[in-house]
Each structure stands twice: as structure tokens, then as C-alpha cells.
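Supplementary Methods, section 5.1.

A reviewer requested that the exact input to the structure prediction be made available. We therefore reproduce it here, unchanged from the version used in the analyses.
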Amino acid sequence: MAAEPDFEAPLVDLQKRIDELVHKADAASATEAAKLRLELDRERRSVYAGLTPWQKTLVARHPNRPYTLDFIQALFTEFTEIHGDRRYGDDPALVGGLALYKDRPVAVLGHQKGRDTKQKIYRNFGMTKPEGYRKALRVMELAAKFSRPIVTFVDTPGAYPGLDAEERGQAEAIAFNLRSMAPLRVPIVVNVTGEGGSGGALAVAVGDRVNMLEHAIYSVISPEGCASILWRDASRAEEAAIAMKITAADLKGFGIVDEIVPEPPGGAHADPASLFRSLDAVLEAQLRELSALSPDDLVEARYRKFRDMGRPGREFTEQPASPGPRP
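The structure derived from this sequence is encoded cell-by-cell as follows.
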């Protein structure tokens, strides 16, 4: 069984008591279990309403949190996975392919972590290598060729920093994806579902709309990495998480994120079906809105969106003010 964050310990104890009562299968136990379920729901709402940035980091990393393949199974049909980058090989840490979303052809891709030890090793803990990013770009360019919207799911600690990845051009692969996604003439909707770690996340996150799950994080580096660099002390990760402003609420305020997708009480791992319904509604509305724009307007608005980030007083607008030269 996956280890729970410390702040969830009371919730886990309540759930164990409920399970024990359910197994007794008598009327008195059923009544008591119903009372405890109400108490558990109240406790979950209370605990998750006041999570600190570090606690949100732990929730974002929860091993039972939905991953890309879970979202694909829940929200898309007829998914056909595409393997390999046609240069070096395939990377299981990033999955992608063609699918239908409400009977509309789309391309979908994202990071995939593993559940058990065998899967984690196979998926490289969701840390993508250059061939993974090149595979992602192959899927996206295929989508653009056939005018299919692109939906991406971001959940990675960061790009794989190993020697083999560096030898095959890790930085170049990420940079090339950033440059190549910007002018794609189809709608791109990005969803940060767990950890949005550094360039490993950005390589599939240049979108017309960037959504974040309520308890996801998105940052240039992990809190542990930040603490190690700034203070040479990884144990100060909790302090770093606060200073880095990595939560969905922080990033929505900065204009980095367009919409926060609410999670059920207890986080996405507590009730995935509820989360899927919430995200489904957001995706449907955004794809409908973006599909009404012309390809030229899509590209120009995407350019302005990212150029305006970090400029105080500048707000993103769907339609470009004028077709004049770019600054």
C-alpha cells in the first residue's frame, strides 16, 4: 500500500475504522459506518482546504494520483498510441497518440509515471529523455497536419538528467519543442495534473490554455533542488516551497495558469471519477472556444499570451489588437 502524507494520517485511520465496520455486515455497524463517512468527509474538506505549499507538493506526488493513461481512458475513446521518435527509440515516460474526444479527432499526450516498482523503472519515474520529447513533437506535428486539437497532460519531476540523455541532446530537444509548439496552427490545451517540473514540463506545455489541478504544482525546480542550491540544505524544502509560489492559486494570480480545476475532497486520488468530470467540462468548453478562432488568430494569441507573462498590467486577450509587426 502506498505511503500517505503525514497530514493524511487521521483520514487514513478513519477510513480503516469504516472498512472494519463494513466487514462486520450488521445493522449497528452499518449505522456507525455511515456516521464515520460523514465525519471523514468533513475532515477531508477541512484538511484539504488549508494545505500548505509543501503539503500540496506531497499531494501532487501521491502515487495513486491519476496519470496520463488514466485520463485517456476516462476522457477519450479509440486511443491509438504512437511509439518512437524515428531517430533513436521509444520513451515509455511519455505516451502519446491519436484519439477521439466526444467523437472529435484529437491528439493527446503526456507524462506517465509508474504505480509499482517495475512500472516506475519502466516509465523512468515520468522523467522523459530526448526521444520522448521528439516523439511528443512527432504526435503534435501529425495533429497539426490533419487539423486536430492537441491535449497534453503534464506530470513529471523534470526531464531526465542522466548522461545518456545529455549525450542525445536533452536541452536541444526541449528547446526545439518550445519553438515548434508556438506556431502550431491548431488549438493546444495543457493540463498540469501533478508535478510540473522545469523544462521537462515546459516541453509539452506551450498551449493556448494552461489548466492546473487544484493541488498540482508547477515550478522551475523542485523544492528540494531549490533548497539545495540556495541554502545547501535539501531539508529546507518546505521553506522553499512557500517562497517559490508553486501552487495553482499562486500561478493563476501571476497569469501563468488560465484555469484551476477543482479536485474532490481528499485530492484527485480520493475520487478520480469526480475529477474526470470536472476536467471534462473544462476541456469541452475550452476546445469549443478555441476552435472558433482562425489558425492565424490562434498562433498570434498564443504568442501574445507567453510574451505578456511577467508584464505588470498586461492581460491576455483572445484576439490580437492588430496584425502589425511583433516587438
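The beta strands are 77-81, 94-101, 104-111, 150-156, 188-197, 209-213, 217-219, 259-261. These observations are discussed further in the main text.
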